[in-house]
Amino acid sequence: ARLRYHSASYINKLQRDDAYRALRASQMRLEELNMQLLKLANIDGLTGIANRRRFDERFAEEWLRALRNRHSLTLAMFDIDLFKKYNDKFGHLDGDECLKRVAHCAEEIVSRPADTLARYGGEEFIVLLPETDSSGALKVAEKMRIEIENMHLPNPDSTVSPFVTISVGVLTVVPTENSTMDDCLRLVDDALYQAKDAGRNRVSVAAPPAS
Predict the structure, then answer these.
(1) Burial environment of residue 40 by CB neighbours within 10 A (0 to 12, 13 to 18, 19 or more)
(2) pLDDT for 24-81, tens place per residue?
(3) Of 112, 128, 130, 192, whose CB is crowded by the most CB atoms within 10 A?
(4) Which of 158, 164, 126, 162 is nearest to 145 (CA)?
(5) Residue 48: Cβ within 10 Å count
(6) How high is the pLDDT of residue 169?
(7) Which residues contact residue 114 at a Cβ distance below 8 angstroms, ignoring those fewer than 6 apart?
(8) β-pairing, 124-130 with 73-80?
(9) pTM above the 0.85 mark?
(10) In angstroms, rounded to a whole number, what is the distance separating the alpha carbons of residues 183 and 70?
(11) Contact, 167 vs 192, CB < 8 A?
């Protein structure tokens, strides 16, 4: 009877240990899946960079930090010049590849850990540069513009350049209680359209919002 009791107790312990290990493995797998889902929720599926949702989160975080510390904050919004002509010429598959190449090139330049490059929609991208003044912002924007054109992706129907180019709007602000994130997004978008109206393949700098 004692042998049967101890044998049953030992078997029960082994079964509990196996159940615990299986439960722990399931929990770890669930954590991994949750992390993957979170990553997918924040990543643009085509280009692999941050998506609009992730940009909005990062912008809110950095806005509050800059407001608290009285630091400058820069936005740079850009899109691919005459991208419809590129799609019409080469088709949407090549158009998708072009978006990937442009995103990768910009990502190589926007390389600080706190910086965020995101696909804003369609062929439009946005860059968040915390603690970056206007001269530093202009250098980043010009470097992106030059390096993307220097990839020499053909765009033969473009009236701007024989290659794919971008137009960029830039805004540098020191957030105050009287300014808002929406004001800044509107101003940087206006600056982008000023660059396009001025002939494209150029950078236009917006005046900061009135305090």
Answers:
(1) exposed
(2) 877 777 677 666 655 667 999 999 999 999 999 999 999 999 999 999 999 999 999 9
(3) 192
(4) 164
(5) 12
(6) 98
(7) 62, 130, 131
(8) antiparallel
(9) no
(10) 18
(11) yes
Span 95-123, pLDDT tens digits = 999 999 999 999 999 989 999 999 999 99
Report the DSSP beta bridge partners of residue 167. 79
Sheet holding 73-80, edge to edge: 116-121, 124-130, 73-80, 166-173, 203-205
In this structure, what token pair is assigned to residue 58? 């990062």
Instruction: List the catalytic residue out of 61, 123, 149, 177.
Output: 123
Residue 6 pLDDT greater than 70, yes or no: no
pLDDT of 162 strictly over 60: yes
Place of tokens 């540069």: 129
Q: What is the dihedral of CA 123, 129, 133, 138, to 10 degrees?
A: -30
Residues 6+ apart with CB under 8 A from 193: 169
Cα 166 to Cα 9, 44, 70, 97, distances in angstroms: 72, 20, 31, 16
**Residue located via tokens 């085509």:** 46
Catalytic residue status for 147: no
DSSP 45: T
Q: What's the token pair of residue 41?
A: 């929720």
pLDDT at 3 over 60: no
Euclidean distance between CA atoms 22 and 36, whole angstroms:
21
Q: What is the mean pLDDT of residues 138-143?
A: 97
- Interior/surface letters 177-201, b for 16+ CB within 10 angstroms, e for the rest: eebebebbbebbbebbebbbeeebb
